[in-house]
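INFO  loader      accepted 1 record
INFO  loader      residues=296
INFO  predictor   begin
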Amino acid sequence: MLENKDDKLILGLPKGSLEAATTDLFAKAGYKIEISSRSLYPTINDPEIECMLLRAQEMAMFVEEEMLDCGLTGFDWIQETGADVVEVCELVYGKVGRNPLRWVLAVPEDSDIKCAADLEGKRIATEAVGMTKRYLEANHVKNVRVDFSWGATEVKPPHFADAIVEITETGSSLRANRLKIIDTLCTTTTRFIANKKAMANPFKAAKINRIAMLLKAVLNAEGKVGLMLNVQEKDLENILKKLPALQRPTVSPLSEKGWFALNTIMDEMVVRDLIPQLKELNATGIVEFPLSKLVD
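INFO  predictor   done
INFO  writer      dumping tokens
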């Protein structure tokens, strides 16, 4: 067990489906995390941080109880455990893509269950028992057995359950098991959380906020590139009309009179078509460059 000290930040990392995506995100933010298959205590290239791998389901509870200063978990598990924690920031990423995850109610493709009311007298398997019971209560459905599922929830219907409540990013696993979605209970994203004691500690609060800023900067930069180009004054107005930008392109005069350098950031998907258009408008010295971080 890690010892909580005032000069060390104890960081919980999610073990399991988000593990690889999380270490990749931290690496892009400048934090190299190395995980050994034999240890739940990863190393990190920051002497002021100590890490521990935990299942996302437990993270909020241990952060609230001050066993961890901070950690990453889903909004769904914060709600499920009812943990009283500080949500430092939202981080929209997953093991496959960058879309929010959904907890859905799913049934076999040939099931007669079409809506929540049809669950009366049925059996549901799920890891999110509290969320499921609240959903049933909100829909005024009673006499439903909700079983905790220890995993492989998709294979439970129809022999071990009539329906499941399961988390999905793309729905592919559900379709592969011949299940169809009939309702969404919750949309969730990853949250960087901390406990109130850590946020009251100047050193730890500053460290947590810096990490949050860098992680968000990495996600902000995804799918965007920088573009630099040179343009004559006579062509400047037409080129400025063509350039998309987060705010406004930066325009700087060059040493040669009548010439300007433009610098802007844009979505990567538009660059392929934009560069030839800029060239046709007499832009020169066009340089596209990748972004690793974008700080708001």
